[in-house]
Amino acid sequence: MTGRFPHMITGAAKVHPGRAFDGPLWVHYGQAYVAVDEAEIDELDSCFRGQQNGICGAAVPGTLFLITGLHTGIVGFSLDVLPAEPELDDEWEDIVEVSFETHEKDVVLEEWGGEGTHPFELAPGTYRVRYCGRGMDQGSELDTTPDDDTIVDTYALVFWPAPMAPDRIVRQSSENAAYWHDHAQGLTAG
Q1: Is residue 48 one of the residues assigned to a domain?
Q2: CA-based radius of gyration for the chain
Q3: What is the number of domains present in the chain?
Q4: pTM recorded for the entire structure
């Protein structure tokens, strides 16, 4: 097992077809990442520059910079790779979509600071990625989880094959997501 919490089950859990990860994910500074073949993650502003959404940064090829409400601790997290676009689920308060391209099949969901890596496979190509969040404001208010069992905010990341397209905000309900969207939209090119 990998990750900061070896006593918890992490990694691939085949809960249903397409599920590549389902479990707790360690975040710090409210961050987690997806990277192709251990790519180096750029600083936050580079990953969001030119985007409308501020919670799933896809401006740097081969990486996704994920923002959570919780500053430090564990969040609930699932990652699915599906053959086609899924229906929107009303359980999610905040939803954004971005495009992602990979030329490698080895992709990693990475906890902050490399505390844990969770590899999964994507066939080389272009994908649409939906990042969904629930409880971002509660996570932000809590700031830091008091123990390894407290999960306040939960996220889902879903990949499916699709042509490249601009990012978009599908649903925004939390103040935390609104803050980060404003931040991304305020970044100037360059």
Answers
A1: yes
A2: 15
A3: 1
A4: 0.89
Is residue 99 in some structural domain? Answer: yes
Residue type, 32: A
With cut-offs at 50, 70 and 90, classify the pLDDT of residue 3.
very low
- Which tokens go with 28? 């710090």
Amino acid type, 45: D
Q: The domain containing residue 65 runs over which residues?
A: 19-184
Looking up residue 115, the CATH number of its domain turns out to be: 2.60.34.30
Any bridge partners for residue 88, and if so which? none
Residues 56 and 167 sit within 8 Å (Cβ to Cβ): yes
Candidates 132, 140, 151, 138; CA nearest to 92 is 132
Q: Tell me: the pLDDT tens digits for 31-70?
A: 999 998 666 677 889 999 999 999 999 999 999 999 999 9
d(CA 94, CA 76): 15
Per-residue pLDDT, averaged over 63-81, amounts to 96
Sign of torsion over alpha carbons 176, 150, 66, 46: positive
